[in-house]
Write a structure and sequence with these properties.
About 30% of the residues lie in helices and about 25% in strands. It is an alpha/beta fold and about 250 residues long. The protein has a single domain, classed as Vaccinia Virus protein VP39 (Rossmann fold). The strands form 2 sheets. Strands 3, 4, 5, 6, 7, 8, 9, 10 and 11 form a 9-stranded mixed beta sheet that branches. It has a two-stranded antiparallel ribbon with strand order 1-2.
Length: about 250
């Protein structure tokens, strides 16, 4: 393992069950979005899970402690998948987690159709054309719909899921109407929704949404996630998500 790191890379603690992850300042690192999605998603105890736009593999790593299911991931960025696979090796999870470098559009060719109990995705949030598009190619692909878009994510998720399987996504509130419309267009009925607020005085800046392929029409809007308390510290819920499960 002494040569597991490349230039500019570091090993960070995930704080959950002593997991570790390889990251680099040169590419997109995981953020609270991924942590919240891994906590929010309804994780099956067995079966098969796939994480689209998996990046450096943080979501497969985080959910691996909650399930015996096989976990797969796909991302178009070869550098990130290489880092992710070395993180899987570092955590001795190669029997459970398999991550591949490929275009999301090829997911069904690689993995098959109608086989997955859960799809998770932390997709690019921003349409192409925004003035704030990052000059760093890795960051730009992660944040902007350069290599995939929301409709392609929903179409692929529909194809991958079993009937009754779930799609869990983290995204931005300004696209919520579009998200719900596309969920329904691709026969994934929204079932659970949570808004994420930086603190109790600010409007939501993230949403967590989960739908069921072929599900009935019943949406539950759950209590909001408040990230920081009035003292600027993590709220009790966020502290528990980051630190409270270590002894499970």
């Amino acid at each position: 393992m002494e040569n597991i790191l490349q230039s500019s890379e570091r090993i960070d603690d995930l704080l959950t069950h002593n997991l570790k992850i390889i990251q680099s300042r040169q590419v997109f690192s995981f953020s609270i979005d991924a942590v919240l999605l891994a906590h929010f998603a309804s994780i099956p105890k067995q079966g098969q899970i796939i994480d689209l736009c998996t990046g450096n593999g943080v979501i497969p790593l985080l959910i691996s402690v909650k399930t015996k299911a096989k976990i797969y991931g796909i991302d178009i960025q070869e550098r990130l998948i290489d880092m992710a696979n070395r993180s899987v090796e570092l955590n001795q999870l190669t029997d459970q987690i398999k991550l591949v470098h490929n275009d999301l559009k090829e997911s069904t060719t690689i993995f098959g159709k109608g086989l997955f109990d859960l799809v998770t995705v932390n997709p690019p949030y921003l349409p192409i054309g925004g003035q704030d598009q990052n000059s760093n190619e890795h960051l730009a692909i992660a944040r902007h719909e350069i290599s995939t878009n929301l409709e392609e994510v929903l179409k692929t998720s529909h194809q991958l899921l079993k009937v009754g399987g779930r799609l869990a996504m983290v995204h931005r509130p300004f696209r919520l109407v579009e998200i719900i419309a596309l969920f329904r267009e691709y026969k994934i009925e929204p079932k659970r929704l949570r808004f994420v607020h930086p603190n109790s005085d600010k409007e939501a800046n993230m949403i967590l949404i989960e739908g069921t392929k072929g599900g009935g029409k019943e949406l539950r809007v759950l209590p909001p996630v408040i990230v920081y308390d009035r003292q600027g510290e993590y709220s009790k819920e966020l502290y528990q998500i980051y630190y409270g499960d270590k002894d499970e």
